[in-house]
Design brief:
The complex is a heterodimer of chains A (331) and B (270).
Chain A lengths: L1 E5 L2 E2 L2 E2 L1 H15 L4 E7 L7 H6 L4 E5 L9 H14 L3 E7 L2 H14 L3 E12 L2 E8 L4 E8 L3 E5 L19 E5 L12 E4 L13 E5 L10 H9 L3 E4 L1 H5 L20 E5 L5 H7 L4 E6 L5 H5 L2 E4 L2 H18 L1
Parallel strand pairs in A: 1-4, 1-6, 4-5, 5-11, 6-10, 7-10, 13-14, 13-15, 15-16, 16-17
Antiparallel strand pairs in A: 2-3, 7-8, 8-9
Helix pairs in contact in A: 3-4, 5-9
Chain B lengths: L4 E7 L1 E3 L21 E3 L1 H17 L1 E9 L4 H10 L3 E6 L7 H14 L17 E5 L10 H9 L3 E5 L1 E4 L5 E8 L2 E8 L2 E5 L11 H9 L3 E4 L8 E7 L9 E5 L4 H11 L4
Parallel strand pairs in B: 1-4, 1-6, 4-5, 5-12, 6-11, 7-11
Antiparallel strand pairs in B: 2-3, 8-9, 9-10
Helix pairs in contact in B: 2-5, 3-4
């Protein structure tokens, strides 16, 4: 039996979220003595074989959709459904819980009439047609332990809750057997297709920033963010804000960190004037270290942060910026 | 040509959680004894989007939910935002899984036409647009819209934060961001679209809107017991906190030297 993992690729590499999906796929396969195969849309050379091999992948399927077709969610799902028949008995299909991964697996679930478990944190086989899994609810503020009963288990993996580096699998550290697969598609499968506009935004992306400086209600208003932006620039990081800030219209929604905004995974999240509601913490639980600056020593975020400074951000941040600038000048 | 736009928005009643989530003693549900309820944020934006489209082009907005009798409160909140008609698929309060939820919604919208004057003759349902939130705030299943689309044979796009509907076309442009790049889907109507918060900033309901909502009828369809699904919850747990409370570095500007030391140790100084 085979666990098939849909991987999203960029510039010849497996995207970070898909590496995390591969690590759950590998663990699931390992729990049942099954193999892991990877599938991607693109040519056989589109992805690094060394990366696949290191992740424990034995066979790779390059899905060829035809000239000019990139992302077509239903066509991707149709290809996976077809592959499940071609790739030998497939017991599970795993993808990253990205917009694409969730969407494609939902289509696959509808096509095959099988249940789907989104945002899984772990999965092990507990019996024939049965998987024991843990998945996120409330974007990770709550965990659900569940049984998935299905001959074709469909799972997406929560990127912020799973380690990227899968355990090395020495048995597989070698050649990846890459095969091409051309699914039979109808016009209907290609009705919905993405066209990309090339306006990749300049600056540090919130989702991948190493440092995020966050501002909440305590910033006080739209004019208070200059000091946070200056600090973010000094640290080579990005500005993030809480939901109250975007619903007040102080900052654009694309800067929101939270369950309904962006999920971040920085080395450091410096949360300034943010109380730490569930909605917000769901977006920053992937941060390695959280430092909270807050006037209220009893704010929920103080219980969840690694370090805290009790005080007004408008007093602390200018002093911090001055200290960093003078250190830069002397070094 | 699209003359008016007939829209149905599906919403979900979810607990309002603030600083923490508490699980019931039997570990099966979120303890809501101290909580209020609200509509999932993505879906409130879906209603706002629908109301804006209909204000511009004409047509009607229906809101639909599957939930306990109390979910009528959330339908009234959405009527106050500007929806014109409300349908409640009433359950006994037990949690419905995504497969059964999608089937019940598809059944209801497939058999019940839009309310607007632009609708087709009785017996021939017409919806131009079925709007959903991208995922429910509580269960986060990410699949009901797609399953409904398949059941009704409609095209579907999800995670949408930009929607262009114009009166001269029977197609829409729906956009979202993928890995820092804007991607756009050109989709023929009728279609299923799931949206995310950020597509708009929902208005506050007006007083006349609230008054109208209070008196508005709610069409209720009673459902049976929740069907059994392949994904079965055993228990809910709150993830263990990473540690105890934060280490306090100090107060006010006096904490800056300690703060700089920590930033240095973390290797984030440049």
């Amino acid at each position: 039996m085979t666990v098939l993992c849909l991987v999203e690729i960029a510039d010849g590499s497996v995207r970070d979220a898909s590496q995390r999906a591969l690590s759950v796929a590998t663990a699931l396969a390992g729990s049942a003595g099954e193999d892991v195969a990877a599938a991607w849309v693109g040519s056989g050379e589109a992805v690094s074989r060394a990366e696949l091999s290191a992740a424990g992948v034995g066979v790779g399927y390059a899905i060829l959709l035809g000239a000019g077709i990139d992302y077509a969610p239903l066509a991707w799902a149709r290809a996976l459904a077809g592959l499940a028949g071609v790739a030998g008995p497939v017991s599970a299909v795993v993808a990253a819980a990205t917009d694409r991964g969730n969407e494609v697996l939902a289509h696959l679930a509808a096509i095959t009439g099988q249940p789907m478990a989104a945002n899984c944190v772990s999965a092990t086989r507990s019996g024939p047609d049965k998987i024991d899994l843990v998945r996120q609810r409330w974007a990770g503020s709550l965990l659900e332990e569940a049984d998935l009963d299905s001959p074709l288990a469909l799972l997406t993996v929560a990127a912020d809750a799973v380690a990227a580096q899968p355990e090395a699998s020495p048995a597989r550290a070698g050649e990846v057997d890459v095969r091409t697969y051309e699914p039979e598609l109808t016009d209907g499968d290609l009705l919905v297709q993405a066209t990309e506009s090339a306006d990749r935004k300049a600056g540090v992306s919130l989702a991948t920033a190493r440092v995020v400086v966050g501002g909440g209600r305590g910033v006080g208003g739209p004019d208070g963010f200059a000091v946070l932006e200056e600090l973010a620039d000094l640290l080579g990081g990005a500005l993030g804000v809480s939901r109250v800030v975007t619903s007040q219209g102080w900052r654009p929604h694309r800067q929101q960190v939270g369950q309904t905004g962006t999920k971040i995974t920085p080395e450091l999240y410096l949360a300034c004037g943010i109380s730490g509601a569930i909605q917000h913490m769901a977006g920053c639980q992937g941060a390695k270290t959280i430092i909270a600056i807050n006037t209220d020593p009893d704010a929920p975020i103080i219980a969840k942060a690694t370090y805290a400074v009790i005080g007004d951000l408008h007093e602390v941040l200018p002093a911090l910026i001055a200290a960093l600038k003078s250190a830069n000048q002397t070094s | 040509m699209l003359t008016t736009v007939e829209i149905c928005v599906c919403v979900k009643r979810v607990p309002m959680v603030g600083g923490s989530i508490v699980v019931t003693v039997d570990e099966q549900d979120v303890d809501t004894s101290m909580a209020g309820f609200t509509v999932s944020p993505h879906e409130e934006c879906g209603v706002e989007e629908a109301v804006r489209i209909v204000e511009r082009l004409g047509g009607s907005v229906t809101v639909l939910t599957l939930g306990p009798p109390e979910a009528a409160d959330q339908l009234r909140d959405m009527l106050a935002l500007g929806a014109g008609r409300a349908i409640l698929l009433q359950t006994d309060g037990a949690e419905w899984g995504p497969v059964a939820t999608a089937a019940a919604i598809a059944d209801a919208v497939g058999s019940r036409g839009s309310a607007g004057p632009g609708g087709r003759p009785p017996g021939a349902p017409r919806w131009d647009l079925l709007l959903f939130g991208n995922e429910a705030a509580d269960t986060g299943g990410y699949q009901v819209p797609v399953r409904v689309a398949h059941a009704l044979g409609l095209p579907c796009v999800t995670g949408i934060k930009r929607l262009e509907v114009d009166g001269g076309s029977e197609r829409i442009a729906a956009g979202r961001e993928y890995a820092g790049v804007q991607e756009t889907f050109d989709v023929p109507l009728p279609a299923v679209v799931s949206v995310k918060e950020g597509i708009n900033l929902p208005r506050y309901p007006s007083l006349p809107g609230r008054l109208r909502a209070k008196r508005a009828p709610i069409e209720t369809i009673e459902l049976g017991a929740a069907p059994v699904e392949g994904l079965n919850k055993r228990r809910l747990t709150v993830p263990a906190a990473s540690g105890s409370r934060a280490e306090v570095l100090g107060s006010g500007a006096g904490a800056v030297p300690a703060l700089v030391r920590v930033l240095d140790e973390l290797g984030v100084l440049r």
